[in-house]
Structure formats: C-alpha cells, structure tokens
Amino acid sequence: MTKPLVLAGVVLAVGAATFAAIQFQPTPVQPVTAPKTASASAMVAVKQPAAHSELAQMGKRAFEATCAACHGDNAAGQDGIAPPLVHKIYEPGHHSDMAFFMAVDNGVRAHHWSFGNMPPVAGLTKGDVKAIVAYVRELQRENGIF
Predict the structure, then answer these.
(1) First-to-final CA distance of the chain
(2) Residue 27: which of 102, 112, 114, 107 has the closest Cα?
(3) How many helices and strands (H and E) does the chain possess?
(4) Dihedral of alpha carbons 118, 119, 123, 124, sign
(5) Sequential DSSP letters for 62-113
(6) pTM for this structure?
C-alpha cells in the first residue's frame, strides 16, 4: 500500500514540475519593427524643464540616438508605435529605475499597452541607461509624475 502512494506522489510531483517548467518558460521577445515616421503623432504633451542636469543632458542625447525612434521625441510616445515614458504608468513607484535597465537588457513583454513587445536594446552601457533614466525622470517630474 505504501509503494503505490509513493509512486503516485512521485508521478504527481514530476507532472507538476513538468507543467511548471513548460508553463513558465520566458517567451522570446519579438523585435518591434515599426520605425519612427513623420505620420506618427506624439501621445502626450511634454513640458520641458528650464534646464536639465548634466547627467540628464547626456541621457537626452542617448535617448534621441536610441530610444526616440520608438518612444518619440521627449519620451512623448508615438501613436501606434510605442508608449510615452512621460506617463503615470512609468512613475518611479510603479516602474523603478531598475525596470529601465532590465528593459534595455532583456526587452519587455507587452503588458500595459498594445504596441507589442519591446526588444532588447543593443549598444547601450549601464552608464548610458543611467543617464537616460535621469533624463526621463526629470521630464516626468516637470510634468507632475513623481
């Protein structure tokens, strides 16, 4: 009687482990192919601060070179392409600075918006991302997002 119970327990454990392994495998992030176009419109109006910190100035240049093609000028988003980062969803209490680092390194599976997945971003150093985050956070603060 004990052997059948042990065998049943082992079978259930192996089945549960197999199910969990299959169910919770990360899905590869598919690249977003929609480039910035002249016809795409900004999703939010972004008020600029009077001046950016030195770090945020570097971040603005890096953002313009790597992020603006999808997230739009001044992180205002582009309708039909990518969300605005100057938005309450991306406030520090909901998306920490680390979330930006992880998005660059790993990409992001679509979860707040219906734009599709964001691919990882190649060619950015941790310092670049730190500067980009400083730029985005300064824009957010100027626009009442804390």
Answers:
(1) 63
(2) 107
(3) 5, 0
(4) positive
(5) HHHHHTHHHH-GGG--BTTTB--SSSGGGSTTTS-HHHHHHHHHH-B---SS
(6) 0.74
Q: Name, in order, each residue with C-beta under 8 angstroms of 63's C-beta and a sequence gap of 6 or more.
A: 71, 75, 132, 135, 136
The dotted CATH code for 32-142 is 1.10.760.10
Q: Over the stretch 72-82, which tens digit does the pLDDT of each residue have? A: 999 999 999 99
Burial class for 24, CB neighbours closer than 10 Å (0-12, 13-18, 19+):
exposed
Residue 38 CB-density burial (10 A; 0-12 exposed, 13-18 middle, 19+ buried): exposed
60 neighbors 54 (Cβ within 8 angstroms)? no
Q: CA geometry: angle at 136 spanning 95 and 56, to 5°?
A: 135
What is the band of 59 on the pLDDT scale with cuts at 50, 70, 90?
Answer: very high
Q: Find the angle CA(98)-CA(146)-CA(142) to the nearest 5 degrees.
A: 110
pLDDT at 16 over 50: no
